Amino acid sequence: MKPSLVLKMGQQLTMTPQLQQAIRLLQLSTLDLQQEIQEALESNPMLERQEEGEDFDQSEAAGEGDESSGSGTMETTFKETSVATNEMADESEWSERIPSDSELPVDTAWEDIYQTSASSLPSNDDDEWDFTTRTSAGESLQTHLLWQLNLAPMSDLDRLIALAIIDGIDTDGYLQESLEDIHASLDPELEVDLDEVEVVLRRVQQFEPAGVAARNLRECLLIQLAQLPATLPLLGEAKRLVGDYLDLLGSRDYAQLMRRMKIKEDELKPIIELIQTLHPRPGSQIESGEAEYVVPDVIVRKHNERWLVELNQEAVPRLRVNPQYAGFVKRADSSADNTYMRNQLQEARWFIKSLQSRNETLMKVATQIVEHQRGFLEYGEEAMKPLVLHDIAEAVGMHESTISRVTTQKFMHTPRGIYELKYFFSSHVSTAEGGECSSTAIRAIIKKLVAAENAKKPLSDSKIAGLLESQGIQVARRTVAKYRESLGIAPSSERKRLL
């Protein structure tokens, strides 16, 4: 068989640059979109923000035609703007009109209006003022401990040991390395004994937050109890319980605990309440990351018994094509400058049109979600209906992948709070009457049942499944356990409490 050239005709779908840009903008979150718009404004001179109170024709700003393209399909006419230029005065005359600083009247001092860094500091007699709470933004636990170490009176050798100890503390405040490992990591020439490492550890354990640098939960709680006032009632019993019977407390074996400590239930309850005031993860009190802000894309509100869906206009700035720069583009000019301006003008129109397409798609999807989940807006999570991407895709006439892009990292502000659009989608469970119940509604019912349970006899997963079945919702015990874990609810054995 000899090789030969064959000419075939066929059709193939190709994504144009405009479509690729529209899809990319569609899947961006609000914060990422704001950054994308800012980059477009800085790189494209044809784009500009619409200031408050300015009116312009959207069809002009996002017109599909190009005056310089030569196709003649559509032309966009921009209004000519006349720029009035005033003759500036001579530099000498202008400088004479400006008064000097000494001639300007002064009726107040700067410190009377604005606080300086020195004046903003509190006085020395303010005992309640805390420097770290006022100045530490996003301070880590390691930084907080090092700051206290620099203020502690220690020898150079002890400070070096303390640094090795602080390096081994995790974000929860526990010392993850053993004293032997810390001792082995030190320079042998220093001739440090293991007892010295333990002594320095005791000093680090006195740092804030209370309980830091503990090697286990029992030691962490004992350190916190030791720092409480000695006159505190039941302090000795709490130390005894933590030191000897912490395992029984963790397993909620209150009967064995009362038998071992030889106390009654009314005496055990205040001891446990005192222990519950302690922090099992002291490092979490200091560790704080950067704040994450959620900007809603859609706002839902009720007006005259109707639910209205609106775009958050403050989240995304409105853009337009600069009419003055666009007027400089000449149709018949093929110079480099004119070609550059023509390309920038076309890119600006594409960008604005992609933003409009994103807003229209987001409004369609959000409107259908609100229409479908009106029961949630009226009555809460228990009235949430089952919803999948296919339902919204059929309603708006789009592909499921498009709906997935629209609902990812997009948030809706409702009277019940701010929710991601994906929150309104959930699977369904069949009911005894042949209907359907969403998994979100089942979670809400489980949460409600657990909140109303008897603390002495908490509901097991099988009991919760039986209560749901009595309401017509057929859910297996394993499904109940899965939903319970997703809500962060502990098993029944760990929810047992003393009344």
From TrEMBL:
Residue span(s) of domain RNA polymerase sigma factor 54 core-binding: 131-325
Region (Disordered) residue spans: 44-106
GO MF terms held by the record: DNA-directed RNA polymerase activity
Keywords: DNA-binding, DNA-directed RNA polymerase, Nucleotidyltransferase, Sigma factor, Transcription, Transcription regulation, Transferase
Coiled coil: none
Highest taxon listed in the record's lineage: Bacteria
Stretches with biased composition (Acidic residues): 51-67
Pfam families: Sigma54_AID, Sigma54_CBD, Sigma54_DBD
InterPro entries linked: RNA_pol_sigma_54, RNA_pol_sigma_54_core-bd, RNA_pol_sigma_54_DNA-bd, RpoN_core-bd_sf
Transcription regulation in keyword set: yes
Domain RNA polymerase sigma factor 54 DNA-binding residues, every copy: 339-497
The family this protein is said to belong to: Belongs to the sigma-54 factor family.
Chain's role: Sigma factors are initiation factors that promote the attachment of RNA polymerase to specific initiation sites and are then released.
Protein name: RNA polymerase sigma-54 factor
